[in-house]
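so ive been stuck on this for like two days lol. basically i have the seq below and the ligand is thiamine diphosphate, smiles is in there too. i just want the complex predicted, nothing fancy, no docking runs or whatever. if the output looks off dont worry ill sanity check it later, just need somthing to start from for the group meeting slides
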Amino acid sequence: MGKKITGAEMVIQTLHDQGVESVFGYPGGAVLPIYDAIFQQENVKHILVRHEQGASHAAEGYARSTGNVGVLIVTSGPGATNAVTGLTDALLDSIPIVCISGQVPTHLIGTDAFQEADTVGITRACTKHNWLVKDIKDLPRIMHEAFYIARSGRPGPVLVDIPKDIQFAEGEYENLSKTTHKTYTPPSTIDSKAVSAVVDLMQRAKRPIIYSGGGIINSGPKASKLLQKFVQKTNMPITSTLMGLGAYPGSGDNWLGMLGMHGTYEANMAMHDCDLMLCIGARFDDRITGKIDEFSPKSKKIHVDIDATSINKNVEVDLSIIADCGKFLNEVLKIMENRNNKFQSYDLWWKQIDSWKKVNCLQYKANSDVIMPQYAIQRLYELTKNKDTYITTEVGQHQMWAAQFYKFDKPNRWLTSGGLGTMGYGFPAANGVQVAKPDALVIDIAGDASILMNIQELSTAVQYQLNTKIFILNNSYMGMVRQWQQLLHGNRISESYSDSLPDFVKLAEAYGATGIRAKKPAELDDAILEMIDTPGPVIFDCVVANLENCFPMIPSGKAHNDMLLGENVSDEEVANAIDDDGKIMV
Amino acid sequence: MNKKNPASTYDIISINEDDERHTLSIIVDDEPGVLARVIGLFAARGFNIDSLTVSETESKQQLSRITLVTSGSPSVIEKIKVQVDRLVSVHRVADLTADYGQYGALERELALIKVKGTGNKRLEALRLAEAFDAQTVDASLDSFVFQITGRTREIDRFINLMASVGLTEVSRTGVAALKRGAGST
Ligand SMILES: Cc1ncc(C[n+]2csc(CCOP(=O)(O)OP(=O)(O)O)c2C)c(N)n1
Ligand SMILES: [Mg+2]
């Protein structure tokens, strides 16, 4: 017990004790005491965003790239409501962030005071947990609990709502960063018998597949290492969700590419025809399964997840293990070592997979006049793969092309809004990464529509001299919407043309950043190199083919083995790919 | 193995299973907003709430007990339990359905039932109340209020019968439940 400090000082002290180096925020009346405390210290750096949504995604970027908890500070009312999208995004993608919001003074709560919003009510549904602090005595405990809950078990966003009088009030602070929580106890052990049963199933399987997800990334870099070892030992083919990219190297021998709606043909066919599916840290999301009653009909399914609610939620499995993915991989490798029996070599299965690979599902029609979006990503990959690169994305076709064509060899290098599909995520997230990793090359692969959703964050990037690069695949359309309109709605391009786009080069310049434009394939490489070499934030306006569609694709309502491939698909086939039942789905 | 799931990406209600009624006892931290968390979860995930009672139980430890009756297929009931258990403020969830588990549980509910009428109907109402062991807690020249405690099924039966002898209003407490024997939830 030390001397008495104010609630505002406790907030900053907690951040420091929790090892937080930078926070993202925006001031306002209800957080002025906290901002005053920020002003009077040097332990925690504050990054001023230009919109609270930007702060929320920046905190996500900071968290996802470092594995630590990201923090944002917002004022009451509009400050808090602006952060809701980022909180929801973090909830769906299991990203640990702590949002500290100011609230009107305790005695005004419930009076519709100026900038009062029922923040804990509004965010109850989009946080893992939240608190309204009503007594200064509770503040140190709640602050530290918030960090504990955000990062433990299945990580997620939490919010601490602090009335202004509590920020001014004085109390005793204690560093509680080692404490846990009285009711929240995430699984810490593992059922070895069940893991043994996994090995039994593996030994009997002839056509196994690993389907991994973001849970491996969340478990930490060690889990990715173990996964690689596990794949190498078993020679099993591996695919992953959008969120799991990078856990197993994209250039690895057993890698089938991403699975799901825009996954590769070989990954989806292997999922459909496998006889053993080992799902580690993924959640059988509808983008992954396609038509649920035709999902992998011949397989025994094993599900490893730290969150019990994910088990049997969408797909009933034969064996489930509720545990941390890294712990599971460690255990399964141990058990395998103790057994002498040989594993199958799965030769026939690999032969089959190789025949699917020959379909070459990511093929696209090359063009020497127009930059094909896929080509742009391929070049970006080739020219950045040997650097310390982090990629974020917005949402749309460019996101899927990035996932298909950029190969991630390490975890935590790929940041995208998977569960919520939030346009406007990528750029502030990239700023968050850049703050955490000042020397890294951080690129937001963006779309012309998405980038405008949080373009104001360019001001943030300029202010803090962040080197964040925005690589816009500019097709002048909300391409993914246009593609669906072509598939589902008779090619009636309703409101998805990007009319009146700004001149992105001038826009960059207006903010004090650099703008670069490439229009021809021949000039692409040099322009990308120029982007990499230019210090400070850069907008790269990559003008690409307007009407290219993203393939392969499992049309909604179809099964994994019913994919639309890009190369030879006619416009008519595209128009009739989805039947009436499929149309009602998102 | 996916036979239970109908042909839709989203709609995954298990069509082959019959709905069951379950009484869940949810021990939570007695803190503001905790009830909103629990019922918000039911609303957000489309689970049913048939009845709900809440009160502080162990005041020393600042715990409350939420007793909630829900219905759904066995797999939905399983989902409800793990979802509720995942809430940070929830200590534990126990299934206190009367005929569930090794020993089963006790479920009781109290209802106040107002009937209006004169003559034969009034006499019949009194006779029925007696047969059901209901107490008369209020009476006027043309009305009674009965109080009945028992299992939900019995109370339902009593109310159904009262409908033909002048039932006007019902107020029920919802189910309270405890495990049988010495063990606690
Ligand atoms: C905030 C938000 N609003 C709407 C959508 C629906 N949506 C998904 S993709 C998309 C178009 C994105 O266009 P653009 O950024 O140009 O990317 P492209 O598909 O052209 O690569 C839209 C509107 C969304 N995902 N997020
Ligand atoms: Mg576009």
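The domain at 106-178 of chain B is CATH 3.30.70.1150 (Alpha-Beta Plaits). Helices of chain B lie at 34-45, 74-86, 120-131, 152-162.
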